[in-house]
Write a structure and sequence with these properties.
Number of strands: 26
Largest sheet: 8 strands, parallel
Strand order of the largest sheet: 5-6-9-10-12-14-16-18
Structural class: alpha/beta
Shape: elongated
Strand content: 15-25%
Radius of gyration: 31 Å
Distance between the termini: 111 Å
Length: about 475
């Protein structure tokens, strides 16, 4: 009868261990071959296959710890953890293995490798504790809900009402996350946190920070000062965030993507404090109404790499800005148009401009049947390749805007295309369609005064 597999030894390694190790090495070799920048001259594959020397041990025991860790570094964390149970050699190598970094694949809604460890249950929390020693070089972690009746220990200055309502919940430690010193991506989604946790903002290699639906996590933008490699900041529905946008200047050299979407956002400052960020491509502060600034101040060399810009209504020229002065609109429209023509072109989204009801130039509709409201909304139009803007009358039904059928004349931002151009026929056809909305405000390029408004309505509608 053949000996039991566990009793059979090959160069000090069991048959099972050797088979499992070979399987792990095989998966790693396949991953190496699949790498777009893989080079046969890098010596990794050769080191595994070169057994010409009589002094070389052909088993995993013959490989150095650093080489073994390099091989494991082509696997996801699950494969690494499976491999480490084979033998002490792999366990030791796993402790120094840099778990690979994988970008999120939006088409499949997943990572290309199992590289992000998601803590979404008590069992996964216990696993994270184990990983702090077994696989401390994990680079991607996502903290989520760990189950009803479970929460993380309160941080500093917790919300007392929240603490009282969850007083009988089972608490779990969060401090151990600091042991993942190689962390490059940290995501928190509906994580049961309450108070301030400096430990969550002390990862010098962190590149991506996402905090979503963590309403009781208290933090300030100043907390990002230790994240000197941060490229992406994504904050959504975290009502306890405070600070000044200027605090992001410590990340000037690295920051590429900023998305802050918070109801009743308390962040203050001038968005132009980020104008000289050389890598910034995406800036969305739509709900940050306390952020100020003026789109007209954006110079030719400001925001050199920006592709998408969305700002709160406190910024003159932002998507939902309400103007105090009619005379400001023309210069702001020209500034926004220039941004769209830059290289790279800037996506500033749809604009929903209007004259503020607090403006001294605003007046109400006379309320007579058949009379349109005053043209206090602003609309960008396009005919062919020619872009312009106009004031328009907007009807409201139960607080919602309905389609406009009464507009002022178009204020053009581009010259008219030549008659010989290929675009001219399209321009004329689309222009005729646009001008069908002009009725009683014909000849007006901006809203009439209140007296003019009443007169033109009566004259046009014969009332």
């Amino acid at each position: 009868m053949p000996p039991h597999p566990k009793k059979s030894k090959l160069n000090g390694t069991s048959a099972n261990d050797t088979a499992s190790s070979a399987a792990a090495a095989g998966v790693a070799a396949d991953r190496i071959a699949d790498q777009p920048n893989s080079n046969a001259d890098d010596g990794i594959v050769d080191s595994l296959l070169d057994d010409d020397s009589e002094n070389k041990d052909p088993t995993i025991n013959g490989m150095s710890n650093s080489l073994t860790a390099t091989i494991l570094g082509f696997l996801g964390y699950k494969d690494i953890m499976r491999s480490r149970i084979c033998c002490k050699k792999l366990r030791d190598a796993a402790r120094s293995t840099i778990v690979p970094w994988a970008e999120y694949d939006k088409s499949s809604y997943s990572f290309s490798l199992e590289t992000q460890f998601c803590v979404n249950s008590v069992k996964k929390h216990k696993a994270m504790v184990a990983l702090t020693t077994a696989l401390p070089n994990l680079q991607q972690i996502r903290l989520s809900s760990i189950g009803h009746g479970h929460k993380y220990c309160e941080g500093k200055d917790p919300d007392e009402e929240e603490a009282a309502s969850t007083a009988d919940w089972t608490t779990h430690e969060i401090q151990m996350i600091s042991k993942f010193t190689k962390l490059r991506s940290l995501s928190m989604y509906a994580t049961p946190l309450n108070g301030r946790y400096p430990v969550l903002f002390n990862f010098p290699l962190l590149q991506i920070l996402k905090i979503q639906y963590c309403g009781n996590l208290k933090w300030d933008l100043n907390a990002l000062t230790k994240l000197r490699c941060l490229k992406e900041l994504n904050v959504d529905t975290c009502d306890s965030l405070t600070g000044n946008i200027k605090s992001l200047r410590v990340l000037r050299a690295t920051l590429e993507n900023v998305y802050i979407h918070i109801r009743n956002c308390e962040i203050e400052g001038d968005f132009m404090d980020l104008a000289d960020f050389p890598r910034l491509t995406f800036l969305n502060l739509t709900n940050c109404s306390l952020i100020t600034g003026d789109m007209r101040e954006i110079g030719e060399n400001d925001f050199p790499m920006l592709e998408s810009l969305h700002l709160g209504e406190g910024v003159i020229g932002s998507n939902c800005h309400k103007f105090q002065h009619i005379s400001d609109v023309a210069s702001v429209a020209e500034a926004v148009h220039r941004l769209k023509q830059r290289n790279p072109p800037q996506n500033v989204g749809y604009v929903f401009w209007s004259l503020s009801q607090d403006s001294n130039e605003c007046y109400t509709s006379n309320g007579k049947a058949g009379h349109p409201p005053p043209p206090f909304s602003i609309d960008f139009v396009r005919a062919g390749s020619r872009v312009g803007w106009r004031w328009k009358a907007t009807h409201y039904n139960h607080g919602c805007k309905s389609r406009v059928t009464n507009s002022c004349e178009i204020n053009w931002l581009d010259p008219e295309p030549g008659r010989e151009s290929n675009d001219y026929d399209v321009y004329i056809r689309e222009l005729q369609s646009i001008q069908e909305d002009v009725f009683c405000f014909e000849g007006y390029h901006q809203p009439p005064t209140e007296e003019e408004y009443k007169r033109v309505c009566e004259e046009y509608y014969d009332i």
